[in-house]
Amino acid sequence: MLQPKSNSPQKKIYGIYLAIDYHPNADTIINKICKDLGIEADNGYGPDKEYKFHTTIIYSRFKIPKDKDDKLCNFETKVGSTIFQKKKPKISVPVKVIGFGFFDTPDGRNFHLKVDSPFLKSEFKRAVAAGLPTDFPDYTPHITIKNKVPDNFKVPNEIIQKYKGTVLYSNDEYIEELDKK
């Protein structure tokens, strides 16, 4: 009798990452925000950028038990991608800017756009319900703009009001394995 073929790797998974990235038009808007604030974004499109602008849905560095690999490897994004099988269809989801915020990280003070999206919230809940672990159970949808800003960096109220309510569109939802680090 043939057993169903698994997409599970022959190695242990050391973490999982589920996110959406943004349409290039979102870069134009985010770069205008940066220009208005007199800063340069760390992310975006281009060879000098570390990452595309994106919103993380699930990030986990938890050691994933081997017996859970199969379930996690077969979790599908809304377009049908899994960790080891990428699909071509794109997904365009509206994401609304609701403000600006900061996270204190080991690398410095992180500056980001706070965003709201029923899709992002429902995908987070769906992923957690399916058994994907998360290092951040209090999900805060955002788009990182700059990884290190001074403690005295502030966003003027006129900039907040200018961009609050702006709608950006995603380009794709993806899931990938995190490397062992």
Order of helices and strands: EHEHEEHEHE
Q: Residue share in helices? A: 10-25%
**Gyration radius, rounded:** 18 Å
Separation, N- and C-terminal Cα atoms: 40 Å
Which strands sit side by side, in order, in the main sheet? 2-1-6-3-4-5
Which overall shape is indicated by the principal axes computed on the Cα atoms? globular
Number of strands: 6
Q: Tell me what portion of residues adopts beta-strand conformation.
A: 25-35%
What does this structure look like?
It is built from 4 helices and 6 strands; from the N terminus they run βαβαββαβαβ. It has 181 residues and is α+β, with helices and mostly antiparallel strands. The protein has a 6-stranded antiparallel beta sheet. The radius of gyration is 18 Å and the shape is globular.
Map the helices and strands.
Blueprint: E1 16-22, H1 24-37, E2 54-60, H2 66-73, E3 94-105, E4 108-116, H3 118-129, E5 142-146, H4 157-163, E6 167-177
Antiparallel strand pairs: 1-2, 1-6, 3-4, 3-6, 4-5
Quick description:
Helices cover 23% and strands 28% of the residues. It contains 4 helices and 6 strands; from the N terminus they run βαβαββαβαβ. A 6-stranded antiparallel beta sheet has the order 2-1-6-3-4-5.
What would the keywords be for this entry?
181 residues; alpha+beta; 6-stranded antiparallel sheet; 4 helices; 23% helix
